[in-house]
Task: inverse folding
């Protein structure tokens, strides 16, 4: 008698029905898609911000190398590559930047008043570096 009671209890335990399984699957898929799009945008924003920081660091390092070595060096962007003193950094797809060339003399000063503009479409942001002639410094504006 005890065995038949246990068998009856086991039979009452049921799994998900097909409808319940599909409902759980669709809710889970929706939540994953929602978070994945937010995560993708965050990754693009972080990649663009990291490139801006790397650009500023490379600008200052190139300027310092020119002053320390006592010979002119160059910082440029051509064909999607940021180039300076043997260092090449790929410009990420999240950044739109026009080609430019900055020459630092043996004192680490630049001899141009060019504007370097970067656009980050995903953030609807534009970063402009206005170079100051002679000092090698720049004025950064974000709009």
Result:
């Amino acid at each position: 008698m005890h065995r038949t009671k246990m068998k009856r209890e086991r039979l009452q335990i049921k799994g998900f029905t097909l409808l319940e399984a599909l409902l759980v699957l669709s809710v889970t898929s929706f939540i994953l898609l929602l978070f994945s799009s937010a995560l993708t945008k965050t990754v693009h924003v972080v990649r663009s911000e990291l490139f801006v920081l790397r650009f500023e660091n490379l600008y200052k390092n190139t300027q310092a190398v020119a002053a320390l070595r006592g010979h002119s060096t160059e910082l440029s962007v051509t064909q999607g590559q940021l180039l300076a003193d043997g260092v090449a950094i790929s410009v990420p797809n999240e950044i739109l930047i026009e080609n430019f060339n900055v020459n630092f003399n043996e004192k680490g000063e630049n001899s141009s008043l060019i504007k370097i503009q970067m656009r980050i479409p995903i953030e609807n942001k534009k970063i402009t570096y206005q170079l100051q002639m002679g000092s090698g410094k720049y004025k950064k504006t974000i709009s």
